[in-house]
Design goal:
The chain has 267 residues and is α+β, with helices and mostly antiparallel strands. The protein is 28% helix and 25% strand. It has helices at 49-55, 58-65, 70-91, 153-156, 159-167, 173-191, 256-262, and strands spanning 33-40, 100-102, 108-110, 117-123, 126-132, 137-143, 202-205, 210-213, 224-231, 234-241, 248-254. Helix 1 (49-55) crosses helix 3.
Length: 267
């Protein structure tokens, strides 16, 4: 996540308007292919935090304890609790029962054995989790109501992305920066390579939203699919490698308190 402060203004360049349903009922994802849920941290009552922490395994709790700042600790707890509650919603097993392992590059997955694919993201004020039965995916969220570090564009963006960003009116450049940043983060999380993937080897273009590959070894860019949405004062980007089938995304804003009440909490 990039540090910064201040506010940015909404761009006139099109972003899909939020289509999250305020449906907090836990249940199966109705064969949509991908579920992408977000939870606002400010809506979680103090009394609920110990219950969320109790869902986590020893490794997750130990990592939470190592955070210096309480806001970072709560982001970690909420993101991993949302992950477990969503896996229970789509996979049926109780939240505490899920175990995980790391694949090459360090990306976590359900294990041992097969299970749904997932990815999480967290930032000040919001956590997100995306899940699919069969698609590797990546998700990123960033607050857009703060100053964008535009000076980092040359370091992290491809030349055509820099040019696109510079072509925007000054008032639109902060949101433009976060559009590119979240898309690049979601993509490298979907591939599992993280920052081992050179960020100048691929670039995003808009109208329509798509990725361009400068390195031919990355494969066919037409196979990749992306969604990007504003969630209040946050921007969410979702990336997955398509398989030729039509996929819809079940976007929701959820209450972790309600999910806890509806879930079967067990081992």
């Amino acid at each position: 996540m990039i540090d910064g402060s201040g506010r940015s203004r909404e761009s006139e360049h099109q972003i899909n308007e939020p289509a999250f349903r305020p449906d907090d009922t836990i249940g199966r994802s109705q064969n949509t292919g991908i579920a992408a849920w977000t939870a606002a941290l400010g809506a979680i009552p103090d009394a609920v935090w110990p219950r969320l922490l109790d869902l986590l395994d020893t490794t997750e709790r130990d990592r939470a304890a190592r955070f210096v700042f309480e806001r970072h600790r709560r982001q970690h707890i909420a993101a991993h609790a949302l992950k477990r509650l969503m896996l229970s919603a789509v996979g049926g097993a109780p939240p505490r029962s899920w175990t995980f392992e790391a694949v090459a590059g360090g990306k976590p997955r359900v294990g041992p054995g097969p299970g749904p694919h997932f990815n999480i993201s967290h930032c000040d004020g919001l956590v997100a989790c995306a899940i699919s039965d069969d698609l590797e995916l990546g998700v990123d969220v960033e607050p857009v109501g703060r100053k964008a570090p535009l000076h980092l564009a040359r370091t992290y963006f491809a030349p055509e992305e820099e040019r696109w960003l510079a072509s925007l009116p000054a008032a639109e450049q902060p949101l433009g920066f976060f559009r590119l940043w979240t898309l690049k983060e979601a993509y490298i999380k979907a591939t599992g390579l993280g920052l081992a993937q050179p960020l100048h080897d691929f670039a995003f273009a808009f109208d329509p939203l798509r990725v361009l590959f400068h390195d031919p070894t990355l494969g066919d860019p037409r196979l990749w699919r992306f969604e990007q949405r504003l969630v209040g004062e946050h921007l969410l980007a979702l990336a997955w490698r398509g398989d030729g089938r039509s996929r819809s995304v079940d976007f929701r804003e959820v209450s972790l308190e309600t999910l806890l009440s509806d879930a079967s909490i067990g081992v």
